[in-house]
Amino acid sequence: MPLHVRHAILAALLSQSLPAEAGQFFCAADLSTGFKFTGTGWLSTNFIVTDMRFTIAPADSSGSTYTVTKLGEAYPTHRCTNDLPPGGPIHLLCGGLGSGFVFNEATLRFQETYGFGFIDGDSTQDTPAITIGKCSSIP
Q: Does the record bear Signal in its keywords (predicted)?
């Protein structure tokens, strides 16, 4: 089944289990790439994105703050600010120095970044990465 069809089905299912609020989205990662330490050096690598899915929802009624929550997690991974005026499309900027999430409602695309790892020294525990994907509006 094509990925966009699976997204539409999941968005329809989520819309039945989430309260009806404007500006909710279901997002799924398409690609993720970054760097990993192999024990002898750093190499570029691709990551498996099968389970990287998120919901974006308003954090309050102001239209200026949103949360990003990974499916299956109890708490949001990001709290975001809409940098466009309320009432129109949203453009979210989330995160800080080590990680971030950016979403553009006009294109229904997102980017998530994880920046720790390399700067902390040579370790197989942290792998800097950037993930890209697409979102669907939850009716």
A: yes
